[in-house]
């Protein structure tokens, strides 16, 4: 072996030094990526005065009375040129048993690990573009005008979800869309969002992924919110069948919220039309909610809400609901809540007119539900 000359040795030493130093110099670039772990843990007890089919009362431990229990990871990264990259990963689980929460995805597609979000995107002064599984803009538009802000129990979150479940969650060859999960989460989606003055909006499209068609299995949604002296909201979304490209779901909404001192008055209207894949209209549900928030102490907010949900094609599918609640903020990240719902369900009431997470408590009867729990965020 030839001896290494001093000149060559210098070149080699320089390369070794560069190999060691360059990763160290590159490390601050990684430090510019901000990553956050966050979550919600929510659990409580639920008493129900009547149950189907025997009409007896029931007491159970329930997850997510106020907000869903989640574990999430999010991050952002400065890319220069006025651009910022970001990502979101969000798991949905049940606190009472530690299991993954159920999914409204089409039959046979499995339970997603990151049910609520699995996406990345870019944002700048021009707005943001998000790619992947994500929240649709329609539901987001109405959070400030829905009487109970779409709380996980006793709100029209369920009229929203259940009216976009049955027409899209079937097995292959039936009514089905594999990009939709209860009209709230959308897979294979691209969404543009922006805020211009007091107006914020989003537009989303889910690619169908079907050969020879851009319409089959696709979905699109839009929603906007005006935040000024009053809050106004509007939305519309369409979910198309996997095989026929029929509009299996057409869903729209309007809302208003009016602050007045310690009170905020709210009204929200939702309409959902469900069709079979052959175009036959099977339901047309109007979901009307009105309510008022009263911040009677700095750490206490009471809410009174009334929901009247009815399927215009099936007169017996009708519920009337009164909800009374109070949220006590022990601190910003810890809330004790108590909420009562009085449900009057007609003789053919279904989940499509329900405000209760588990569906109609007792078909054809009046029932009372009381839920108390704790919500912890981190």
Automatic annotation (TrEMBL):
The keyword Transport applies. It comes from the Bacteria. InterPro entries: Gram-neg_bact_OMP (IPR050298), Gram_neg_porin_domain (IPR033900), Porin_dom_sf (IPR023614). It is a multi-pass membrane protein. The keyword Transmembrane applies. Keywords: Cell outer membrane, Ion transport, Membrane, Porin, Signal, Transmembrane, Transmembrane beta strand, Transport. Homotrimer. PANTHER family: MAJOR OUTER MEMBRANE PROTEIN P.IA (PTHR34501:SF9), PROTEIN YDDL-RELATED (PTHR34501). This is Porin. It comes from Zoogloea oryzae.
